[in-house]
Write a structure and sequence with these properties.
This protein has seven helices and eleven strands. By secondary structure, it is an alpha/beta fold. Helix 1 crosses helix 2.
């Protein structure tokens, strides 16, 4: 794995004020590896404030890669799979086995509907992502188990993207080792369990769709 990190922030908590502050720190590292023709792809909704800072500070265009977790019926904060913007599904077989086939099918269908709705909300009538041969920088606010980011990478690679960079402010070391990207940029790498993305931030709250949409300005209003 080609990892770009900030060693002085490693294995520390509460290192970023909020997502915008994290995005600024991330942008400083992304600049060192970002191809000049790259497209920044935010994973909504929490990745949008981070990606907005990265795109603006690196002088790169911003778009969105809609991906959503397939969550447990009894815990909507934890997932056993993910659905990407192209409809593809990634499951953790061991975790999915605890749910049952019928519940998994229902969970995938509900998540696919959520992804399609968010695609319409965030991208509107914009043309599909044109990624063939183009470098892509996938940005989220952090990576814990990694299913969402792995699904995003697989969909972007399937769409023909060239060099793929994953850029997140914080992530678990054990998860980073399983990611399939050309470069991973992560200032705050932490090891061990339990791991929570929120622990890297002083201020943490959900990003609602209205805030994310405003930061995207929106994609559908921009020329191709």
């Amino acid at each position: 794995m080609n990892l770009v990190e900030q060693p002085e922030l490693g294995d520390r908590e509460r290192v970023f004020r909020d997502r915008r502050d994290a995005g600024r720190a991330l942008a400083d590292l992304v600049r060192t590896v970002a191809p000049p023709d790259a497209l920044v792809l935010a994973v909504p909704a929490g990745g949008v404030p981070v990606a907005r800072e990265v795109a603006d500070r690196c002088g790169l265009p911003l778009d969105v890669a809609v991906v959503s977790k397939v969550t447990f019926p009894w815990n909507t904060e934890s997932g056993y799979g993910a659905v990407a913007f192209d409809g593809s599904v990634l499951l953790d077989p061991a975790r999915a086995a605890t749910v049952g086939e019928q519940a998994v099918a229902q969970g995938i269908a509900a998540t696919r509907a959520r992804v399609e709705r968010r695609q319409r909300l965030f991208r509107g009538a914009a043309a599909p992502l044109a990624l063939a041969g183009r470098p892509a920088i996938l940005v989220d606010d952090g990576i814990a188990a990694g299913l969402t980011m792995r699904a995003a990478v697989a969909a972007v690679r399937k769409a023909g993207a060239g060099r793929i960079v994953i850029a997140v402010p914080t992530a678990q070391w054990e998860t980073l080792e399983r990611l399939d990207a050309d470069v991973v940029v992560c200032p705050n790498v932490r090891a061990g369990y339990p791991f929570a993305v929120a622990d890297a931030y002083l201020r943490w709250c959900d990003v609602d769709e209205e805030e994310a949409l405003a930061l995207l300005r929106p994609v559908s209003a921009r020329p191709d």
